[in-house]
Write a structure and sequence with these properties.
The complex is a heterodimer. Chain A is an alpha+beta fold. Chain A contains 12 helices and 4 strands; from the N terminus they run αααβαβαβαβαααααα. Chain A has a 4-stranded antiparallel β-sheet with strand order 2-3-1-4. The longest helix of chain B is centred in the last third of the chain and has 16 residues, at about 180-195. Chain B is built from 7 helices and 10 strands. Chain B starts with a strand and ends with a strand. Chain B has helices at about 50-55, 80-85, 105-115, 120-130, 150-160, 180-195, 205-210; strands spanning about 1-10, 25-35, 40, 65-70, 70-75, 90, 165-170, 195-200, 215-220, 220-225. The chains are: A alpha+beta, B alpha/beta. The interface of A and B includes residues 8, 14 and 199 of A.
Protein backbone atom coordinates (compact mmCIF):
# COMPACT_ATOMS: atom_id res chain seq x y z
CA UNK A 1 0.00 0.00 0.00
CA UNK A 2 2.82 2.37 0.93
CA UNK A 3 4.55 1.48 -2.34
CA UNK A 4 1.33 2.25 -4.18
CA UNK A 5 1.12 5.66 -2.52
CA UNK A 6 4.70 6.44 -3.53
CA UNK A 7 3.95 5.44 -7.13
CA UNK A 8 0.95 7.72 -7.34
CA UNK A 9 1.37 10.66 -5.01
CA UNK A 10 -1.67 12.64 -3.94
CA UNK A 11 -2.69 15.27 -6.43
CA UNK A 12 -1.43 13.26 -9.41
CA UNK A 13 -0.44 15.91 -11.96
CA UNK A 14 -0.48 14.25 -15.37
CA UNK A 15 -0.56 17.57 -17.24
CA UNK A 16 2.22 19.17 -15.19
CA UNK A 17 -0.07 22.01 -14.13
CA UNK A 18 1.79 22.67 -10.88
CA UNK A 19 4.42 24.39 -12.97
CA UNK A 20 2.21 25.61 -15.81
CA UNK A 21 -0.22 27.31 -13.42
CA UNK A 22 2.17 28.70 -10.83
CA UNK A 23 1.12 29.15 -7.23
CA UNK A 24 2.21 32.79 -6.89
CA UNK A 25 0.87 35.15 -9.52
CA UNK A 26 -2.69 33.85 -9.80
CA UNK A 27 -3.36 33.65 -6.03
CA UNK A 28 -1.75 37.08 -5.53
CA UNK A 29 -3.95 38.73 -8.17
CA UNK A 30 -7.08 36.96 -6.94
CA UNK A 31 -6.18 37.99 -3.38
CA UNK A 32 -6.06 41.62 -4.51
CA UNK A 33 -9.45 41.20 -6.17
CA UNK A 34 -10.89 39.54 -3.06
CA UNK A 35 -9.55 42.39 -0.93
CA UNK A 36 -11.31 44.95 -3.13
CA UNK A 37 -14.45 42.81 -3.15
CA UNK A 38 -14.43 42.64 0.65
CA UNK A 39 -14.15 46.42 0.89
CA UNK A 40 -16.98 46.82 -1.63
CA UNK A 41 -19.19 44.43 0.29
CA UNK A 42 -18.39 46.24 3.54
CA UNK A 43 -19.22 49.55 1.87
CA UNK A 44 -22.54 48.22 0.61
CA UNK A 45 -23.43 46.78 4.01
CA UNK A 46 -22.41 49.98 5.81
CA UNK A 47 -24.43 52.12 3.40
CA UNK A 48 -27.45 49.87 3.90
CA UNK A 49 -27.09 49.94 7.70
CA UNK A 50 -26.59 53.68 7.89
CA UNK A 51 -29.44 54.30 5.47
CA UNK A 52 -31.73 52.10 7.52
CA UNK A 53 -30.62 53.76 10.74
CA UNK A 54 -31.12 57.26 9.37
CA UNK A 55 -34.47 56.27 7.92
CA UNK A 56 -35.66 54.85 11.22
CA UNK A 57 -34.56 57.99 13.07
CA UNK A 58 -35.97 60.44 10.58
CA UNK A 59 -39.34 58.82 10.01
CA UNK A 60 -39.90 58.56 13.75
CA UNK A 61 -39.88 62.32 14.30
CA UNK A 62 -41.69 65.53 13.35
CA UNK A 63 -40.95 69.15 14.04
CA UNK A 64 -43.79 71.59 14.67
CA UNK A 65 -43.12 75.34 14.54
CA UNK A 66 -45.61 77.63 16.29
CA UNK A 67 -45.13 81.31 15.41
CA UNK A 68 -45.40 83.39 18.59
CA UNK A 69 -48.18 85.97 18.80
CA UNK A 70 -48.29 88.20 21.86
CA UNK A 71 -52.09 88.46 21.71
CA UNK A 72 -52.51 84.72 22.00
CA UNK A 73 -50.20 83.27 24.70
CA UNK A 74 -51.89 79.83 24.86
CA UNK A 75 -51.08 78.77 21.27
CA UNK A 76 -48.22 76.42 22.15
CA UNK A 77 -50.24 74.69 24.87
CA UNK A 78 -53.18 74.17 22.50
CA UNK A 79 -50.90 72.68 19.88
CA UNK A 80 -49.28 70.42 22.49
CA UNK A 81 -52.69 69.29 23.67
CA UNK A 82 -53.78 68.56 20.10
CA UNK A 83 -50.59 66.60 19.45
CA UNK A 84 -50.82 64.56 22.64
CA UNK A 85 -54.35 63.57 21.81
CA UNK A 86 -53.42 62.25 18.39
CA UNK A 87 -52.92 58.49 17.84
CA UNK A 88 -49.44 57.63 16.48
CA UNK A 89 -47.68 60.28 18.56
CA UNK A 90 -45.54 58.96 21.39
CA UNK A 91 -44.30 62.24 22.80
CA UNK A 92 -44.49 65.97 22.10
CA UNK A 93 -41.96 68.21 23.77
CA UNK A 94 -41.79 72.01 23.47
CA UNK A 95 -38.18 73.18 23.45
CA UNK A 96 -37.42 75.68 26.21
CA UNK A 97 -35.36 78.81 25.54
CA UNK A 98 -32.05 77.13 26.33
CA UNK A 99 -32.76 74.15 24.04
CA UNK A 100 -33.87 76.52 21.30
CA UNK A 101 -30.72 78.60 21.69
CA UNK A 102 -28.59 75.43 21.51
CA UNK A 103 -30.44 74.39 18.37
CA UNK A 104 -29.87 77.74 16.64
CA UNK A 105 -26.33 78.37 17.86
CA UNK A 106 -24.67 76.92 14.75
CA UNK A 107 -26.51 79.44 12.59
CA UNK A 108 -27.12 82.47 14.81
CA UNK A 109 -24.20 82.29 17.26
CA UNK A 110 -24.37 82.90 21.04
CA UNK A 111 -25.80 86.41 21.00
CA UNK A 112 -29.20 85.53 19.57
CA UNK A 113 -31.19 87.93 21.81
CA UNK A 114 -29.51 90.99 20.27
CA UNK A 115 -30.74 89.99 16.83
CA UNK A 116 -34.36 90.48 17.91
CA UNK A 117 -35.56 87.89 15.45
CA UNK A 118 -39.11 86.55 15.80
CA UNK A 119 -38.18 82.95 16.60
CA UNK A 120 -41.11 80.52 16.66
CA UNK A 121 -41.72 78.02 19.41
CA UNK A 122 -40.50 74.58 18.37
CA UNK A 123 -42.11 71.31 19.39
CA UNK A 124 -40.25 68.04 18.88
CA UNK A 125 -42.61 65.17 18.22
CA UNK A 126 -41.67 61.51 18.51
CA UNK A 127 -43.88 59.13 16.55
CA UNK A 128 -44.88 55.52 17.08
CA UNK A 129 -45.29 53.02 14.28
CA UNK A 130 -46.18 54.68 11.02
CA UNK A 131 -47.20 57.87 12.83
CA UNK A 132 -50.36 59.92 12.24
CA UNK A 133 -51.90 61.09 8.97
CA UNK A 134 -49.79 64.22 8.46
CA UNK A 135 -52.33 66.14 6.36
CA UNK A 136 -55.09 65.60 8.93
CA UNK A 137 -52.73 66.48 11.76
CA UNK A 138 -51.65 69.69 10.03
CA UNK A 139 -55.32 70.63 9.61
CA UNK A 140 -56.08 70.05 13.27
CA UNK A 141 -53.04 72.01 14.42
CA UNK A 142 -53.94 74.89 12.08
CA UNK A 143 -57.34 75.01 13.72
CA UNK A 144 -55.73 75.04 17.16
CA UNK A 145 -53.18 77.72 16.27
CA UNK A 146 -53.27 79.34 12.84
CA UNK A 147 -49.86 79.63 11.15
CA UNK A 148 -48.49 76.39 12.63
CA UNK A 149 -45.91 74.69 10.42
CA UNK A 150 -45.57 70.86 10.51
CA UNK A 151 -42.25 69.64 9.14
CA UNK A 152 -41.94 66.00 8.29
CA UNK A 153 -38.39 64.68 7.82
CA UNK A 154 -39.53 62.78 4.76
CA UNK A 155 -37.49 64.88 2.35
CA UNK A 156 -34.29 64.04 4.24
CA UNK A 157 -35.34 60.44 4.44
CA UNK A 158 -35.76 60.34 0.67
CA UNK A 159 -32.38 61.97 0.08
CA UNK A 160 -30.62 59.71 2.55
CA UNK A 161 -32.29 56.64 1.10
CA UNK A 162 -31.24 57.70 -2.40
CA UNK A 163 -27.69 58.28 -1.17
CA UNK A 164 -27.55 54.89 0.54
CA UNK A 165 -28.96 53.10 -2.52
CA UNK A 166 -26.51 54.90 -4.80
CA UNK A 167 -23.64 53.79 -2.60
CA UNK A 168 -24.96 50.22 -2.66
CA UNK A 169 -25.29 50.33 -6.44
CA UNK A 170 -21.70 51.60 -6.75
CA UNK A 171 -20.51 48.80 -4.47
CA UNK A 172 -22.40 46.23 -6.53
CA UNK A 173 -20.85 47.65 -9.71
CA UNK A 174 -17.38 47.45 -8.17
CA UNK A 175 -18.11 43.84 -7.18
CA UNK A 176 -19.11 42.99 -10.74
CA UNK A 177 -15.97 44.63 -12.12
CA UNK A 178 -13.82 42.82 -9.55
CA UNK A 179 -15.44 39.48 -10.45
CA UNK A 180 -14.91 40.19 -14.17
CA UNK A 181 -11.27 41.10 -13.61
CA UNK A 182 -10.77 37.95 -11.49
CA UNK A 183 -12.31 35.88 -14.30
CA UNK A 184 -10.03 37.62 -16.82
CA UNK A 185 -6.99 36.87 -14.65
CA UNK A 186 -7.97 33.19 -14.47
CA UNK A 187 -8.59 33.14 -18.23
CA UNK A 188 -5.14 34.57 -19.00
CA UNK A 189 -3.46 32.18 -16.54
CA UNK A 190 -5.36 29.22 -18.00
CA UNK A 191 -4.49 30.18 -21.59
CA UNK A 192 -0.85 30.50 -20.59
CA UNK A 193 -1.07 27.05 -19.04
CA UNK A 194 -2.71 25.65 -22.20
CA UNK A 195 0.08 26.99 -24.38
CA UNK A 196 2.75 25.73 -21.97
CA UNK A 197 1.18 22.25 -21.80
CA UNK A 198 0.01 21.95 -25.39
CA UNK A 199 2.13 18.85 -26.06
CA UNK A 200 0.99 17.09 -22.88
CA UNK A 201 -2.63 17.94 -23.66
CA UNK A 202 -2.32 16.54 -27.18
CA UNK A 203 -0.75 13.33 -25.83
CA UNK A 204 -3.47 12.84 -23.23
CA UNK A 205 -6.14 13.76 -25.77
CA UNK A 206 -4.68 11.11 -28.08
CA UNK A 207 -4.84 8.54 -25.29
CA UNK A 208 -8.60 9.06 -25.11
CA UNK A 209 -9.03 11.80 -22.52
CA UNK A 210 -12.33 13.63 -22.86
CA UNK A 211 -12.66 17.41 -22.86
CA UNK A 212 -14.17 17.07 -19.39
CA UNK A 213 -11.12 15.18 -18.12
CA UNK A 214 -8.66 17.80 -19.36
CA UNK A 215 -10.85 20.77 -18.41
CA UNK A 216 -11.36 19.20 -14.98
CA UNK A 217 -7.60 19.05 -14.43
CA UNK A 218 -7.22 22.74 -15.27
CA UNK A 219 -10.34 23.74 -13.34
CA UNK A 220 -9.16 21.83 -10.26
CA UNK A 221 -5.83 23.62 -10.25
CA UNK A 222 -7.20 27.08 -11.13
CA UNK A 223 -10.04 26.90 -8.61
CA UNK A 224 -7.67 25.79 -5.86
CA UNK A 225 -5.31 28.70 -6.54
CA UNK A 226 -8.21 31.16 -6.83
CA UNK A 227 -9.71 29.85 -3.58
CA UNK A 228 -6.39 30.32 -1.80
CA UNK A 229 -6.15 33.84 -3.23
CA UNK A 230 -9.70 34.56 -2.11
CA UNK A 231 -8.96 33.35 1.42
CA UNK A 232 -5.80 35.45 1.63
CA UNK A 233 -7.59 38.54 0.32
CA UNK A 234 -10.47 38.08 2.75
CA UNK A 235 -8.04 37.58 5.66
CA UNK A 236 -6.12 40.74 4.76
CA UNK A 237 -9.37 42.69 4.43
CA UNK A 238 -10.75 41.59 7.80
CA UNK A 239 -8.77 44.08 9.97
CA UNK A 240 -9.84 46.86 7.62
CA UNK A 241 -13.47 45.78 7.87
CA UNK A 242 -13.30 45.71 11.67
CA UNK A 243 -11.68 49.15 11.68
CA UNK A 244 -14.40 50.53 9.38
CA UNK A 245 -17.09 48.92 11.52
CA UNK A 246 -15.54 50.54 14.59
CA UNK A 247 -15.62 53.94 12.93
CA UNK A 248 -19.21 53.43 11.81
CA UNK A 249 -20.43 52.00 15.13
CA UNK A 250 -21.12 55.35 16.89
CA UNK A 251 -23.37 56.36 13.99
CA UNK A 252 -25.33 53.14 14.37
CA UNK A 253 -25.46 52.33 18.10
CA UNK A 254 -22.60 53.99 20.00
CA UNK A 255 -21.44 50.70 21.49
CA UNK A 256 -17.72 51.51 21.40
CA UNK A 257 -18.21 54.67 23.40
CA UNK A 258 -20.12 52.79 26.07
CA UNK A 259 -17.47 50.12 26.31
CA UNK A 260 -14.71 52.51 27.26
CA UNK A 261 -16.41 53.38 30.55
CA UNK A 262 -15.10 50.82 32.99
CA UNK A 263 -13.22 50.83 36.27
CA UNK A 264 -11.19 47.71 35.31
CA UNK A 265 -8.82 48.47 32.37
CA UNK A 266 -8.28 44.82 31.21
CA UNK A 267 -11.98 44.14 31.47
CA UNK A 268 -12.64 47.35 29.60
CA UNK A 269 -10.20 46.33 26.86
CA UNK A 270 -11.86 42.92 26.60
CA UNK A 271 -15.30 44.45 26.56
CA UNK A 272 -14.15 46.95 23.93
CA UNK A 273 -12.83 44.06 21.77
CA UNK A 274 -16.13 42.26 22.06
CA UNK A 275 -17.97 45.45 21.24
CA UNK A 276 -15.77 46.03 18.19
CA UNK A 277 -16.43 42.49 16.95
CA UNK A 278 -20.13 42.86 17.75
CA UNK A 279 -20.20 46.14 15.86
CA UNK A 280 -19.22 44.34 12.62
CA UNK A 281 -22.50 43.60 10.84
CA UNK A 282 -23.37 39.91 10.61
CA UNK A 283 -23.46 40.21 6.82
CA UNK A 284 -19.73 41.01 6.83
CA UNK A 285 -18.99 37.87 8.85
CA UNK A 286 -20.99 35.89 6.30
CA UNK A 287 -19.41 37.62 3.29
CA UNK A 288 -15.79 37.17 4.44
CA UNK A 289 -15.81 33.34 4.33
CA UNK A 290 -17.98 33.41 1.20
CA UNK A 291 -15.28 35.26 -0.74
CA UNK A 292 -12.92 32.26 -1.08
CA UNK A 293 -15.89 30.18 -2.19
CA UNK A 294 -16.80 32.74 -4.85
CA UNK A 295 -13.17 32.96 -5.94
CA UNK A 296 -13.06 29.15 -6.12
CA UNK A 297 -16.26 29.11 -8.21
CA UNK A 298 -14.99 31.84 -10.56
CA UNK A 299 -11.71 29.94 -10.98
CA UNK A 300 -13.48 26.66 -11.65
CA UNK A 301 -16.08 27.99 -14.10
CA UNK A 302 -13.64 30.22 -15.98
CA UNK A 303 -11.02 27.50 -16.38
CA UNK A 304 -13.65 24.99 -17.52
CA UNK A 305 -14.99 27.39 -20.16
CA UNK A 306 -11.54 28.48 -21.34
CA UNK A 307 -10.18 24.94 -21.68
CA UNK A 308 -13.29 23.49 -23.31
CA UNK A 309 -13.32 26.32 -25.85
CA UNK A 310 -9.60 25.79 -26.56
CA UNK A 311 -10.03 22.02 -26.93
CA UNK A 312 -12.53 22.51 -29.76
CA UNK A 313 -9.56 23.01 -32.07
CA UNK A 314 -8.61 19.37 -31.50
CA UNK A 315 -10.60 16.70 -33.38
CA UNK B 1 -12.91 -2.83 -38.98
CA UNK B 2 -10.55 -0.32 -40.63
CA UNK B 3 -11.78 0.96 -43.97
CA UNK B 4 -10.74 3.91 -46.09
CA UNK B 5 -12.66 4.89 -49.22
CA UNK B 6 -11.02 7.59 -51.32
CA UNK B 7 -9.53 9.28 -48.30
CA UNK B 8 -7.48 12.43 -48.75
CA UNK B 9 -5.76 14.63 -46.19
CA UNK B 10 -4.78 18.24 -46.44
CA UNK B 11 -3.16 20.18 -43.59
CA UNK B 12 -3.70 23.87 -43.05
CA UNK B 13 -6.97 25.78 -43.35
CA UNK B 14 -10.08 23.66 -43.41
CA UNK B 15 -12.10 23.50 -46.61
CA UNK B 16 -13.88 26.79 -47.11
CA UNK B 17 -11.67 28.49 -44.51
CA UNK B 18 -9.47 31.51 -45.03
CA UNK B 19 -5.94 31.23 -46.29
CA UNK B 20 -4.13 29.46 -49.07
CA UNK B 21 -5.10 25.82 -49.53
CA UNK B 22 -2.20 23.48 -48.78
CA UNK B 23 -1.46 20.52 -51.07
CA UNK B 24 -2.91 17.16 -50.17
CA UNK B 25 -0.42 14.92 -48.36
CA UNK B 26 -2.64 11.87 -48.89
CA UNK B 27 -4.74 11.31 -51.99
CA UNK B 28 -7.43 8.78 -52.80
CA UNK B 29 -6.40 6.13 -50.28
CA UNK B 30 -8.69 3.11 -50.24
CA UNK B 31 -8.10 -0.15 -48.39
CA UNK B 32 -9.70 -2.32 -45.71
CA UNK B 33 -8.14 -4.28 -42.87
CA UNK B 34 -10.11 -7.01 -41.12
CA UNK B 35 -10.31 -7.52 -37.37
CA UNK B 36 -7.23 -9.20 -35.95
CA UNK B 37 -5.10 -8.68 -39.06
CA UNK B 38 -1.43 -7.65 -39.22
CA UNK B 39 -0.27 -5.08 -41.79
CA UNK B 40 3.02 -3.49 -42.55
CA UNK B 41 2.83 0.10 -43.77
CA UNK B 42 5.77 0.65 -46.09
CA UNK B 43 7.16 3.52 -48.07
CA UNK B 44 10.04 5.94 -48.17
CA UNK B 45 10.30 8.96 -45.88
CA UNK B 46 7.69 11.55 -46.88
CA UNK B 47 5.40 8.94 -48.44
CA UNK B 48 2.63 9.81 -45.95
CA UNK B 49 2.95 6.93 -43.48
CA UNK B 50 2.85 9.13 -40.37
CA UNK B 51 -0.06 11.18 -41.73
CA UNK B 52 -2.00 8.01 -42.47
CA UNK B 53 -1.29 6.69 -38.96
CA UNK B 54 -2.47 10.01 -37.49
CA UNK B 55 -5.69 9.63 -39.43
CA UNK B 56 -6.13 6.10 -38.11
CA UNK B 57 -5.36 7.36 -34.58
CA UNK B 58 -8.11 9.99 -34.97
CA UNK B 59 -5.63 12.80 -34.38
CA UNK B 60 -6.97 14.45 -37.54
CA UNK B 61 -10.01 13.97 -39.74
CA UNK B 62 -9.81 13.33 -43.46
CA UNK B 63 -10.28 16.27 -45.81
CA UNK B 64 -12.39 14.08 -48.04
CA UNK B 65 -13.32 10.45 -48.50
CA UNK B 66 -14.82 8.08 -45.95
CA UNK B 67 -12.95 6.68 -42.95
CA UNK B 68 -14.29 3.87 -40.78
CA UNK B 69 -12.42 2.84 -37.63
CA UNK B 70 -13.54 0.07 -35.28
CA UNK B 71 -16.90 0.07 -37.01
CA UNK B 72 -17.46 3.82 -36.49
CA UNK B 73 -17.92 6.15 -39.43
CA UNK B 74 -15.46 8.90 -38.47
CA UNK B 75 -16.80 11.39 -41.00
CA UNK B 76 -20.18 11.52 -39.31
CA UNK B 77 -19.10 10.61 -35.76
CA UNK B 78 -19.93 13.09 -33.04
CA UNK B 79 -16.84 14.64 -31.47
CA UNK B 80 -17.93 13.25 -28.11
CA UNK B 81 -17.67 9.65 -29.31
CA UNK B 82 -14.04 9.95 -30.42
CA UNK B 83 -12.35 9.76 -26.97
CA UNK B 84 -13.97 6.38 -26.37
CA UNK B 85 -12.70 5.18 -29.74
CA UNK B 86 -9.20 6.51 -29.05
CA UNK B 87 -9.09 4.50 -25.83
CA UNK B 88 -9.49 1.39 -27.99
CA UNK B 89 -6.54 2.39 -30.16
CA UNK B 90 -2.93 2.08 -28.99
CA UNK B 91 -0.28 4.20 -30.67
CA UNK B 92 3.50 3.92 -30.53
CA UNK B 93 4.98 7.17 -31.80
CA UNK B 94 8.27 7.53 -33.59
CA UNK B 95 9.32 10.19 -31.06
CA UNK B 96 7.79 8.22 -28.11
CA UNK B 97 5.68 11.20 -26.91
CA UNK B 98 6.16 10.38 -23.25
CA UNK B 99 5.24 13.00 -20.66
CA UNK B 100 8.62 14.25 -19.37
CA UNK B 101 7.40 15.18 -15.88
CA UNK B 102 5.97 11.73 -15.17
CA UNK B 103 7.80 8.57 -14.15
CA UNK B 104 7.92 5.50 -16.38
CA UNK B 105 5.22 3.98 -14.18
CA UNK B 106 2.91 6.99 -14.47
CA UNK B 107 3.45 7.20 -18.23
CA UNK B 108 2.49 3.56 -18.65
CA UNK B 109 -0.45 3.90 -16.23
CA UNK B 110 -1.85 6.99 -17.96
CA UNK B 111 -4.33 5.26 -20.33
CA UNK B 112 -5.84 3.35 -17.40
CA UNK B 113 -6.14 6.49 -15.28
CA UNK B 114 -7.80 8.33 -18.16
CA UNK B 115 -10.18 5.38 -18.44
CA UNK B 116 -10.98 5.72 -14.73
CA UNK B 117 -9.78 2.29 -13.69
CA UNK B 118 -9.35 1.57 -9.96
CA UNK B 119 -5.92 2.38 -8.55
CA UNK B 120 -5.34 -1.21 -7.44
CA UNK B 121 -5.80 -2.52 -10.96
CA UNK B 122 -3.67 0.29 -12.38
CA UNK B 123 -0.81 -0.58 -10.05
CA UNK B 124 -0.94 -4.27 -10.89
CA UNK B 125 -1.28 -3.79 -14.65
CA UNK B 126 1.34 -1.04 -14.99
CA UNK B 127 3.85 -3.01 -12.92
CA UNK B 128 3.18 -6.09 -15.03
CA UNK B 129 3.62 -4.14 -18.27
CA UNK B 130 6.92 -2.66 -17.08
CA UNK B 131 8.11 -6.12 -16.05
CA UNK B 132 7.08 -7.38 -19.49
CA UNK B 133 9.20 -4.76 -21.27
CA UNK B 134 12.06 -5.31 -18.82
CA UNK B 135 11.87 -1.99 -17.03
CA UNK B 136 10.47 -2.95 -13.64
CA UNK B 137 13.64 -1.67 -11.98
CA UNK B 138 13.15 1.76 -13.61
CA UNK B 139 9.53 2.41 -12.87
CA UNK B 140 10.30 5.65 -11.02
CA UNK B 141 12.70 6.96 -13.66
CA UNK B 142 11.68 9.99 -15.69
CA UNK B 143 11.99 9.75 -19.50
CA UNK B 144 15.09 11.97 -19.44
CA UNK B 145 16.78 9.36 -17.23
CA UNK B 146 16.10 6.56 -19.72
CA UNK B 147 17.92 5.63 -22.92
CA UNK B 148 16.18 5.90 -26.31
CA UNK B 149 15.47 2.18 -26.34
CA UNK B 150 14.08 2.26 -22.81
CA UNK B 151 11.84 5.19 -23.68
CA UNK B 152 10.63 3.26 -26.71
CA UNK B 153 9.74 0.31 -24.48
CA UNK B 154 7.87 2.58 -22.07
CA UNK B 155 5.94 3.99 -25.06
CA UNK B 156 5.11 0.45 -26.21
CA UNK B 157 3.96 -0.53 -22.71
CA UNK B 158 1.73 2.55 -22.61
CA UNK B 159 0.27 1.73 -26.02
CA UNK B 160 -0.73 -1.82 -25.13
CA UNK B 161 -1.62 -1.60 -21.42
CA UNK B 162 -5.31 -1.01 -22.10
CA UNK B 163 -5.44 -4.05 -24.44
CA UNK B 164 -6.38 -1.99 -27.52
CA UNK B 165 -8.41 -3.39 -30.38
CA UNK B 166 -6.17 -1.57 -32.84
CA UNK B 167 -2.43 -0.99 -32.34
CA UNK B 168 -0.58 1.48 -34.54
CA UNK B 169 3.19 1.76 -34.47
CA UNK B 170 5.23 4.40 -36.27
CA UNK B 171 8.82 3.24 -36.80
CA UNK B 172 8.74 1.37 -33.48
CA UNK B 173 12.20 -0.14 -33.95
CA UNK B 174 13.90 3.09 -34.92
CA UNK B 175 15.65 3.45 -31.57
CA UNK B 176 16.17 -0.24 -30.83
CA UNK B 177 19.09 -2.52 -31.54
CA UNK B 178 18.47 -5.70 -33.48
CA UNK B 179 17.86 -7.85 -30.41
CA UNK B 180 15.36 -5.38 -28.96
CA UNK B 181 13.71 -4.97 -32.37
CA UNK B 182 13.21 -8.72 -32.60
CA UNK B 183 11.81 -8.79 -29.08
CA UNK B 184 9.40 -6.00 -29.98
CA UNK B 185 8.28 -7.83 -33.11
CA UNK B 186 7.58 -10.96 -31.08
CA UNK B 187 5.55 -8.79 -28.71
CA UNK B 188 3.53 -7.25 -31.56
CA UNK B 189 2.92 -10.67 -33.10
CA UNK B 190 1.78 -11.99 -29.75
CA UNK B 191 -0.69 -9.11 -29.36
CA UNK B 192 -1.89 -9.77 -32.90
CA UNK B 193 -2.32 -13.47 -32.09
CA UNK B 194 -4.47 -12.43 -29.10
CA UNK B 195 -6.83 -10.55 -31.44
CA UNK B 196 -5.44 -7.02 -31.71
CA UNK B 197 -5.28 -5.54 -35.19
CA UNK B 198 -1.70 -4.33 -35.68
CA UNK B 199 -0.41 -1.83 -38.23
CA UNK B 200 3.33 -1.13 -38.20
CA UNK B 201 4.83 1.64 -40.31
CA UNK B 202 8.52 1.20 -41.10
CA UNK B 203 11.17 1.57 -43.77
CA UNK B 204 13.30 -1.10 -42.14
CA UNK B 205 13.38 -3.57 -45.04
CA UNK B 206 15.40 -6.19 -43.18
CA UNK B 207 12.83 -6.28 -40.38
CA UNK B 208 10.04 -6.78 -42.91
CA UNK B 209 12.07 -9.50 -44.62
CA UNK B 210 12.46 -11.35 -41.33
CA UNK B 211 8.73 -11.03 -40.60
CA UNK B 212 6.98 -11.22 -43.93
CA UNK B 213 3.33 -10.25 -44.08
CA UNK B 214 0.76 -8.23 -46.02
CA UNK B 215 1.67 -4.59 -46.52
CA UNK B 216 0.14 -1.26 -47.44
CA UNK B 217 2.61 0.54 -49.69
CA UNK B 218 2.62 4.31 -50.03
CA UNK B 219 4.52 6.64 -52.33
CA UNK B 220 4.15 10.42 -52.51
CA UNK B 221 0.85 10.31 -50.59
CA UNK B 222 -0.77 7.67 -52.76
CA UNK B 223 -1.50 4.00 -52.18
CA UNK B 224 0.69 1.97 -54.54
CA UNK B 225 0.11 -1.49 -53.13
CA UNK B 226 -2.11 -3.40 -50.72
CA UNK B 227 -1.50 -7.01 -49.90
Amino acid sequence: MAERRRLRPRGFDDLGLKRALGDRMLPALVAAMAFLAALSIAGAIAAASLGRHWQEGATAALTVQVPRRDADAGRVERVLAALRGTPGIAEAHALDDRELADLLRPWLGTDQQSLALPIPAVIEVRLTGTGPDLAALAGRLESAAPGVLVQSHGLWVDRLTTLARSLQACAALVLLVVAAVAAAVVTVATRTGLVARRDAIEIIHGLGATDGYIAGRFAGRASRLAGIGGAVGAAIALPFLIALATIAAPFLNGTTEAATVSADPPAAALAASFDVIASVPAAVWLAAPALPLFAWAIGYATAQLTVRRWLRRLP
Amino acid sequence: MVRLDGVALRYGPAAGGRGRAWPEVLQDISFAIDDGAFRWMLGPSGAGKTSLLRLLHLAIRPSRGRLTILGEDINSADRGTLPGLRRRIGMVFQDFRLLPHLSAFDNVALPLRIDGRPEGQIHADASEMLRWVGLLDKLRARPAQLSGGEQQRVAIARAVIARPDLLLADEPTGNLDETQAERLMRLLKELNRLGTTVIVATHNDSLVARHPGPAIRLARGRLVGDG
